[in-house]
Amino acid sequence: MEFTQTCFIHILLAFLFMSSDAEGIITIKANKGQKILLPCNVSEDSLNKTYTVHFRKNGASSVLCYYRVSFNTIRDRKCGSRYVTEGQPPQLYLTNVSFSDSGVYNCSVARQIPPPTEEKFYLANITVQGVVIEKLNSSNQDCMELLCRTEGLAQNQLTFHWTWGTSGNNYNASQNLNLCKPGWSNCDTFACNVSHDNGFFSDTFVFPECSTNMNSIVIMCIALSAGVVLILPIICCCCKYQKRKKEDHTATVFSNKIYENFSFSGPGPTTDTVKHEECIYEN
Predict the structure, then answer these.
(1) Is the CATH number 2.60.40.1120 carried by domain 2-129?
(2) Whole-model pTM?
């Protein structure tokens, strides 16, 4: 069944290539995690025209990215989060590529305005190369096996280099790493470095439970910091309020001779005091 489906796909591609204005197949090699330009070529003379772009993987019925460009403005965009458009005219990019992105793709660019409608197909064979560390199942909890899996790289041209532990001084030169305690701990970081004619590739591995614990500690620290930041202004406001309240209860006395025995917080002046003070104006 799989063979029949593969043959059908190749026949369909050949039919599209012969019956439409299709370009040759473009080979794209990218490292895992890179951002690549997809071959949905739009010429400079399309800047003031209306056209649609459909990008899909061969063998899949769903469209991975669709958008309509009308006079330099993108409309009706329906694309995955890793698909971005940049520049003028808009160019389509795929970000953070993974091994599952390897395959043959086709991009349809159909100009609608001005008529007549003109459609072009662009074919691309994308190969994502790199390494990834996988933990293999083990019946012994004190032992483990890690595999440094490669994609898109010729096996006879590879040199493996493992490091692990807090110091990173440990070394192993095979594709598989087998360890038993006390040679490793749950929170060690394991790194696989691979040398190849086309460059240098690496990947790291940390046990999920250790990564989860570290994330919990980080979240607790952030929460405590946020709590301190929120509580400090409240404490300051309370202190200021208590200080102001205390000042309001303190008697306010005027220093003028006429009002020296008068205060807002005490009782009013006596009759004898008033009579005594009237001597100021006797003469």
Answers:
(1) no
(2) 0.61
